[in-house]
Amino acid sequence: MNTKKDGLTITEYLDHLKIIFDKFVAIGEPLSYRDKLIHTLRGLGPDYNAIVSSLSARPDRPSIDEIHNLLINHEYRLVEQQAVDHLNLVQAQFAQMNLTQFSKNNNSPKSYPSNFLNNFKPQHFYFQ
Q: pLDDT tens digits for 115-127?
């Protein structure tokens, strides 16, 4: 049996595996807990290596619900991190675009009157 998570959500992936595991039960060849766990973890892919290592190293036997919850939490963190990475990329591209636009529009540095700094008084803002 070779089942991969690929583009499925964790819930979709586990539902798909449950259907397969139920088919083994239907033909009178139920899989052991260990076999189910191995097949479940093997199909997750590299994004889940930390969870796979953690679950594989546990001395106890986590319930299917606990595994499901751990995988969903990890999936949520992955999606959240991808969103942050995407936002950082967009911000970097925007900053680069503004810098490029600024340099095109400003071929020479601006000159300020010599007394500019002497007359400059910073504004003070206080938090209330």
A: 555 554 544 444 3
Q: Please answer whether residues 61 and 33 qualify as being in contact, where contact means their C-beta atoms are separated by less than 8 angstroms.
A: yes
Q: Which domain holds residue 33?
A: 10-105
In a domain, 124, yes or no: no
The Cα angle at residue 69 between residues 84 and 37, in degrees rounded to 5: 115
Round to whole Å and give the CA distance between 55 and 62: 8
Calculated CA dihedral for residues 63, 65, 69, 75, nearest 10 degrees: 100
- Cβ pair 67, 40 in contact under 8 A: yes
The count of structural domains within the chain is 1
Q: Residue 44's pLDDT is what?
A: 93
pTM of the predicted model as reported, rounded to 2 decimal places: 0.61
